Amino acid sequence: xxxxxxxxxxxxxxxxxxxxxxxxxxxxxxxxxxxxxxxxxxxxxxxxxxxxxxxxxxxxxxxxxxxxxxxxxxxxxxxxxxxxxxxxxxxxxxxxxxxxxxxxxxxxxxxxxxxxxxxxxxxxxxxxxxxxxxxxxxxxxxxxxxxxxxxxxxxxxxxxxxxxxxxxxxxxxxxxxxxxxxxxxxxxxxxxxxxxxxxxxxxxxxxxxxxxxxxxxxxxxxxxxxxxxxxxxxxxxxxxxxxxxxxxxxxxxxxxxxxxxxxxxxxxxxxxxxxxxxxxxxxxxxxxxxxxxxxxxxxxxxxxxxxxxxxxxxxxxxxxxxxxxxxxxxxxxxxxxxxxxxxxxxxxxxxxxxxxxxxxxxxxxxxxxxxxxxxxxxxxxxxxxxxxxxxxxxxxxxxxxxxxxxxxxxxxxxxxxxxxxxxxxxxxxxxxxxxxxxxxxxxxx
Length: 445
Description:
alpha/beta; 58% helix
């Protein structure tokens, strides 16, 4: 048998689709799977979430295994990994798996993430365009590209989309896509096993280096030093570098100055929380991908109550679709409210917004909301404004750019105001008491 695992899985999908009674179950859970390896009669697939894994285990395992047997002529057992669980065994699979799926594993880019399935809105449009430019002209424009923002807003999606597009346009390009923690762990192993030359050769021979969550370099001086030289080598050769982080370079406080300077050499852009319209578009796109029709009012309810991240938004929708399949019921408003009741009620941050923070601060200090977002710089107005900005950072995890847009101030002013509150809150009892009261008031809304 000479079939690659991709061919095996594609033929298996056809067999499953012809046998399954639930098109929703097929589209949501099985079709979303990616083949990973076939080793010692164990066929491993990767699914996006634990919900997919649980549904497949509970409902579709026997069907998939019997379909695999029809296609391969062998009795295979199914193993299900969630997300990137299979990544740690990637190198081992390359050596031992004759059915290895090179599309998934050779360069570490997840084929699920493309520009075509990325929902563009006002919160991410600039980052999206910059990512496309980097993919179309690697090493020439926006290099390095530094994308930052809170977790779950689409940074990783854009980074992988860049990798996929470059691989499509330049099939022979040596692309390395790696989470920062893995880079760190590989370096530690290289030191321990005295294979640092091999480690350096691997990373410094890349045509495209994509590094996710670079904030994990903080407090790791030796790794920072190694990454710094790798960065310099690739940059001097005109290779494309893409970095993601939860903060802008200047806010990575324990990174060396020269490292921050290198990160700032190219184009730095943030992704902020998606607005209501973008959240609706994301839900519509996700529902369409799963061949599920959901009433607009229901999508509006989900979008209005799940605001903290795209990941949680999509997870809530998948939860609804999965539960409707398990219970064999229609997706109605009452059903959705009951299904998401625990998620929504436990998400205290979803009740707090920039608007509610400004309102509470204005009431507490007996000033108007316009004073807080306006241009008046008197002490009576400046302090409440600083407190409001600080609370946006603390309670909503907003970055400086996002806050600056809400308060119509530049990022430098926002950064200074927040740092001022942070430096005084532990020594100024009155200020500490004010912020504690306002925070409690917000959380009890």
